[in-house]
């Protein structure tokens, strides 16, 4: 993609595809992959030992860099806690724990190209020859026609995953012809430790807020993290934040006990998008969703919550959580899968609701 000045706050990217010449576009919607591993027997675990077992964290940064080349993104920065390594990428984030990796990439990245090399790395370097579970998901892209071939239709992504996993199961929640969310996972009972993931995918976001996440606004990434209230969403985190040139913002936050949250912002008016993701356990996420949407003030957003039986959020997935003011929940679906419950909701701002003036 080339950069040009469209005369707004933010320089945006020109699509080089001749059919769409002159159009400005960046796909903020991320592809999200999470894989949990284990050795098939304790003796097959290799690599340096962490807590008596091999760990994905022993894999060298140079190996991750090579792996990410397949995806068309690179590492910008990293932070480390006692339980997790968080990498900020040119297109989103990667979190590596002892036996789980989360890879989240946006734009035109080819995330699925990383899966096979990743399984190889985990096996060769850590002795992880057992795949405990896999989750691959994304919201419908704003412009699927601009994605690389495999990613234009979920069926094709599923077909690629099915070449690697025997018992894959693919679902779609929401309206197939409007806003929806696709997920591929393994049809098995497996992860026994408490596990939950909340995602908030915000669209058509308040432009006054979005204009702050540009170089021309004049604040640094860490000043923005503080001023906008991102720092206070879940306090006490190790933060890694990044402001792109000329606009765009990404941050990873490492919390105690293997918890994290991550935020990515595509501020361009024509296709603004903000994502929030966390694995903090809760029996209600209303306050958290309200805090996040109060900061960004989207006109609509999707919330997905996935939690397994051991999680305090398991039951919440099957019932309605309270309202998120001032939004209307215009769609809601709850699913019972083998080991996980799953909740999908679409919220929209009523036309009469005024935006809160930004401080
Ligand atoms: C912050 S990144 C991550 C996007 C994220 N997935 C989201 O939720 O929007 C994307 C934003 O940064 C901007 N950007 C600037 N330089 C970029 C680069 N080298 N790679 C990716 N994005 C870049 C894009 O135009 C876009 O606004």
From TrEMBL:
InterPro entries xref list: AdoMetDC-like, S-AdoMet_decarboxylase_euk, S-AdoMet_deCO2ase_core, S-AdoMet_deCO2ase_CS
Keywords associated with the record: Autocatalytic cleavage, Decarboxylase, Lyase, Polyamine biosynthesis, Pyruvate, S-adenosyl-L-methionine, Schiff base, Spermidine biosynthesis, Zymogen
Enzyme class: lyase
The keyword Lyase belongs to this UniProt entry's keyword annotation: yes
GO molecular function: adenosylmethionine decarboxylase activity
Domain of life: Eukaryota
Catalytic reaction(s) noted: S-adenosyl-L-methionine + H(+) = S-adenosyl 3-(methylsulfanyl)propylamine + CO2
Active-site residue list: 92, 106, 250, 264
Cofactor details (free text): Binds 1 pyruvoyl group covalently per subunit.
Binding locations of substrate: 26, 91, 244, 268
EC number(s) stated in the UniProt entry for this protein: 4.1.1.50
Modified residues (Pyruvic acid (Ser)): 92
GO biological process annotation, one example: spermidine biosynthetic process
Cofactor field: pyruvate
Listed Gene3D superfamilies: S-adenosylmethionine decarboxylase
Pathway(s) the chain acts in: Amine and polyamine biosynthesis; S-adenosylmethioninamine biosynthesis; S-adenosylmethioninamine from S-adenosyl-L-methionine: step 1/1
SUPFAM superfamilies according to UniProt: S-adenosylmethionine decarboxylase
UniProt-annotated site: Cleavage (non-hydrolytic), residues: 91-92
PANTHER family in the record: S-ADENOSYLMETHIONINE DECARBOXYLASE (PTHR11570), S-ADENOSYLMETHIONINE DECARBOXYLASE PROENZYME (PTHR11570:SF0)
Protein family (similarity comment): Belongs to the eukaryotic AdoMetDC family.
Protein name: S-adenosylmethionine decarboxylase proenzyme
Organismal lineage: Eukaryota, Metazoa, Spiralia, Lophotrochozoa, Annelida
